[in-house]
Amino acid sequence: MAASESSRYLARSLPRAFAPSARPQSICLRRNLSDQASSKAAPADLEELESTGSLHATPSAPDAVKSFDPISKSRGRKKQLPRSRYQFRSPKYDRGPLHPHQPPKPSDPSSRLYVPGPFSLPRVEQTYQSTVTSDILTLCYVHNPPGFKPPPKAPRLRSWDDSSPYHKNRPLRGPRGGDVLRLLRKPINFNNIPKLERITIHSYVKKAAQDNSSWLHVAGMAVQAISNARVETFKSKTSVATWSIAPGRDSVAVKAELRGEDMLHFFGKLVDVVMPRIKDWEGVKGTSGDSSGNITFGLEPENVALFPEIEVNYDMYPPKMIPGCHITIHTSAKTDKDARLLLSALGIPFYGKMVD
Amino acid sequence: MSSGSNGARRIASVLRPSIAEPQVCRSCHETLVRRNYSSAATQSSTESISTATPAYPVVKPVYTIKAGVLLSRPPQITRDLTPFEKAYYFYQRRLNERLALPFTKYFYFKRGTPADEDWKRKIRERQTPARDIGKYNAYSKEAWNDELLVGSVESEPEHQIEMLVQDAEATVNATSQDTSKKEEIPRPFPRVTEADKANDQKSLNRALQRTLYLLVQSKEGYWRFPNSPIAQDETLREASERTLAQAAGVNMNTWFVGFHPVGHHIYNNKKFGAVDEATSTQHRGEKTFFLKGRIMAGQADLTNNAQNLKDFKWLAREEIEQYVPPHYYSYIKNMLADR
Fold this sequence. Notes:
The structure holds two protein chains of two kinds. Chain A is of the alpha+beta class. Chain A is built from twelve helices and seven strands. Chain A has a domain at 196-351: 50s Ribosomal Protein L5, Chain: A (2-Layer Sandwich). Chain A has a five-stranded antiparallel β-sheet. A two-stranded parallel ribbon of chain A has the order 4-7. Chain B has three domains: 3-52, no CATH class; 62-77 and 192-335, Nucleoside Triphosphate Pyrophosphohydrolase (Alpha-Beta Complex); 83-175, no CATH class. In chain B, helix 6 packs antiparallel against helix 7 (157-175).
């Protein structure tokens, strides 16, 4: 009995000893100061890594550079390449995930949804990264000593006091002094520094309903010119009897929404070219803002004409038809105070009473 | 945030016996012991426990508290693009030229005007409405050949600026009435200044793409940020403003960012001083807390400085490393901007 037991263990353990294990026993990964062999082996592994980053151009062989001429090579070709070699067309319709012909990703230039860009590294973005973020972080720092516990806050939605049997299963009550739940402001730290999210340019042209649609066309062209984005038109939602505007009938407004590079270039032009040239302008009112970090201000028609894109081509616009517009700057700040801190750091002046 | 209430609070905190641990500073301690009315009743009992004196004398280390100034000039111009970024942006521009709708010429140029003639001549030359992507026809049969060959300069920003300026000059000369004189459009200022070429480290016009920091040299030859001990009843902000005025003069328009320090430096003396028997304290060294400042205009001036300084320099991050000792740099390096 005992002999058979041991032989069974032996039979089980023998193949284990000879089997190739996933962890090689001979090479010890731990390196000590004393064993020289493994420390010598390390640089040999590192040699396979590229010594320079991929951001630097590697010089090519000079003769290969000289002989490379794609145009003459294609012209010298006797027979044309098959179309599939140079012309890929993304399928026009989505035929489901099981169809063999799938459209490429929207980031692929051959996709129908591809939008090229970015084309530059905007200056506003660089200023924001290099100067503004660190200053905002310093300004918004709140020191909490070790051992500090913030006082407990009341719940944002109040419960009913159960004084009446009808309170059962009611939804919670809103905050005191108004039904609006404000955004929660978290303390600002390195990963929630306020930044620009988007800019909306909106222009309400009342003459478009009174006269003819040319007012709206000119307004759209002007807004497109200053924003580098396609505009949308909107019909009136409200009735204004004195301007003879009926809801749902008259297209009266154009709007452009800017994000990313377009937004930053527009912001740069606004702050550095247009705003310094506005006559007798005190700045953006301190009371402006929707109390959740978005600031709006207006530009008169003569101020819109100061944008370089309109100024260079001023004669092509009917002079009285250049529209005024409202510009809303949406930031990721949760309160107007933080948004104003960001915008004034980026160069927008504020005046008057500041309302948070 | 009025100073009156602050002062009253400070006096109150001095009079009140200390109950917190010694590593918490005075103002923080004030924050901790400020209580609601509800918890005021429990306060008296905790005080009576903690005021018992320890049985053996403990030597308290004492440091000189100093205020330092991290005065910086932010980057003035955009940074140079990497070769990869240049190539990428250029590629995207040519791609956009292929994918965008054609340029609506009739909106911008009235037929028969000099500007229209000028436009026709230019479009014949460069085959594309964009002025900075080189000679490239996005609608031709060979539009696929949109990649640059080795050694071509079209993706360089200097070349693109030159092309834009030449284009503007051609337009001005073609549409002006006076054909006898050629107009010159001013080029942008160079990105490398005279101070860069001369490596004038006292100039604020140097290294326009980088953040520069003010360093001063003491009579003994050590390079440091300006600093001085905080006087009695002086806040850190007031002390650092005074330090800057004493060290580098008042001929600077500066702005201090906030009231909190952005970094600190601890210096321990090689030999500790004698233990003061009366207070059982021992002087160990000095601690410097740096407040961040920005210079808007002006220049440092050491002629009437009150801190025995002999020289100053405006240095970028890597240059600071060569001037200050490694121990000092290990403390300050994380408060210096990358760019």
